[in-house]
From TrEMBL:
The lineage of its organism: Archaea, Methanobacteriati, Methanobacteriota, Methanomada group, Methanococci. This is Sulfurtransferase TusA family protein. Keywords: Transferase. It is an enzyme of class 2 (transferase). Its EC number is 2.8.1.-. Residues 3-27 form the UPF0033 domain. GO terms for molecular function: transferase activity. It holds the Pfam family TusA. It comes from Methanococcus maripaludis.
Length: 70
């Protein structure tokens, strides 16, 4: 599943990530992209606190990408 949180600032990227993860089953992957860089660490922290796995993070000049395994 892919989730684009471009144009939103915290806490919305984290809340949208939570909602997307809630709709997935265990083992599914979620790719989150966005342009608000502080959200990268907030999403990673939230995901790890909830027991999910961060498979990869990527940061570029125009945003970020996180791949999460539920």
């Amino acid at each position: 599943m892919e989730l684009d949180v471009t144009g939103t600032v915290c806490p919305m990227p984290v809340l949208k990530t939570k909602k997307a993860l809630d709709s997935l089953t265990s083992g599914d992957e979620l790719t989150v992209t966005g342009d608000y860089k502080p959200a990268l660490q907030n999403i990673v922290r939230f995901v790890e606190d909830k027991g999910h796995e961060v498979l990869s993070t990527e940061e570029s000049s125009d945003g970020f990408k996180i791949v999460i395994k539920k």
